[in-house]
Amino acid sequence: MSTPLKKVSAKPELLLSTQHHLCPGCGEPLAMRTILEIITELGMRDRTICVCGIGCYTAFPGIIDVDVLQALHGRAPSVATGAKRVLPDRFVFTLQGDGDMVSEGLQEIVHSAARAEKFTAVLLNNGVFGETGGHMTTTSVLGQRTKTTMDTGRVAEKHGYPIKIADLLAQVDGAVYVARGAMHTPSAIAWTRRILTEAFRAQLEGKGFSFVEILTMCPTDWYVEPSETPDWIEQNFTGTYPLKILKAPA
Amino acid sequence: MLPVQAVARQPATVTIDVETCKGCVLCVDVCPPHVLVMSEDVNRMGYRYPILLDGCTGCELCFKICPDYCFEVYRGAEDAAPLAN
Amino acid sequence: MPTRVLMEGSHAIAEAAIQAGCRFYAGYPITPSTEILEYMSHRLPQVGGVCMNAESEIEAINMVWGAAGCGVRAMIASTGQGISLMQESLAELANAQLPCVVVNMMRGQGDYYQATRGGGHGDYRHIVLAPSTVQEAVDLVMLAFHLADKWRNPVDVLGDFILGHTSEAVEFKPLDERDLPPKTWAATGARNRASHNVTPLGAPQKLNLNPGDHYAAIAAKYPEIARAERRVESGLLDDAELVVVAFGSPARFVKYAIRVCRERGMKVGWVRPISLWPFPDETVREATGRARLVAVFEQNAGQMIDDVRLAILGGVPVVPIGGISHDHSGFGVGPALEPAHIVARITEAYQGKAAA
Asked: Which residue has the higher pLDDT, A74 or C214?
């Protein structure tokens, strides 16, 4: 081969180590990579504060090269509120799972949106409490088998309906940007990169509360092979949670 | 995206950190020219890992879908886009 | 030049916080702490600070978490019920080593255990300071911010309805705080430095996940605090046969009652713990060394009496002479605080008629 080869893609600059304990085929590291790449692109490493919730993704604070405020389960939006209010020129984003944000901390995210807090909230939605071993969350879809809905799947009469948090937040006046992406295919990843960038820009331009939901694969707790997860998302998730921009600044 | 045949002539390759790989196979499924196959051997963690055959186009899809940050992608200089993207 | 101004206790506490450099406050209305929130909502913006009228106690304490985590002096106030809601965060704020000031304007004195033991999980301590006058509340709030930064730990100020709603002339005397180190640990965006974490879950350094070492290091801090930060006041102990122990607002009534008892020929003295954690056990032990009896007046079913007994270690009998006593709203301004009642209880104890 005569032409010299040039490296065109590598692990994100802001990743201090590629070692993490997340399962094979997990979608969360893909979301983390996308976020870190955008932070680098926008030149924001030196003024970024990540407020991290508690779930599988709590593996990241130790290996990402930005300041992290670790919050308790459900509380990241309130912690981010305190941080952004005292340091309004910093770039603040929260990282929460569906158990953290939509089950434990629903009122925190809704109130933060209503107050038009100028941070970006990121939801990694896989419809299960992954870290505890795969139990039903508020976002588990109807029919979804989890450790606590094993025999019947999620049944509305017994377990109620999933909360479509992005749809709910889009109704709140203080939220200026609300969109949903996913990590199951390269084109979904490219779409999510676009909406994350738009959400981050909405914050940087001081427009108000911005929110991005990202559907992430959890083969372990969906009881499928990693290679089956893209189809699983299309068959089970995107009907309830379609990938789209629900609200954007005029 | 360019048709696979068109870019296949460009020199391109990937490096794979096989010791970090957890064998999820997402890269194999996503590879347009089907030049990734899983090993028979296992790495230190006990996972099979992808091996690159001839014919890589440098399309970066394996890199983009890999949850374990195993891939780096190299392309011929005339075709190379900047790293940040 | 310092000047004295007449202020209601709650407002004085809020103003003291601002003069100590507090620039973030979050609160949820609850009697009798609400006036602190009201004062903060108009005063903090005047000095470039932020006051959040939060939607719940849990959100309020976690907003304080965020501001404190960015290195800003932050305070929250509530009463025992609201403090109960915050317990998970109050426990983990200590593990995250986040300095902040937590004011509990109690209803009576039923939150002694809550403050000194904590309702939260794990091995943690808060420093607890209990003022008995509005001036002392001002001084202790300023000290609380200093100690919180010095030890990187939450500090509680334990007041009550009477303290919050009593107006007294006060003077604000900011402390010399030049000895405090800069808050290089704060999450501010990693400009010109390595990034780090502010976390209750492990070490602040990246690539260093070892929660066990982290918790052990924090646990090692508490005995140091206990040695350094005991505070206590006492009087009339030289010939005292009976020593009365009381804290907070009720201690003012006790001091008056003891003067009355002295005028009636009784050899009685008093001890007032100012820091409830660390409890001033050595002073209490020494103060009671020559007494034949110790009586504890507290406006609850008997909580501090345990710490008094632990301090005395059986050397002298200890009897309770306080009790639960409320007004019609349950805010703890009860008839047990009548000086005549306290005099009668002390007299009973002095005459050996108090039940152990």
From this structure: A74
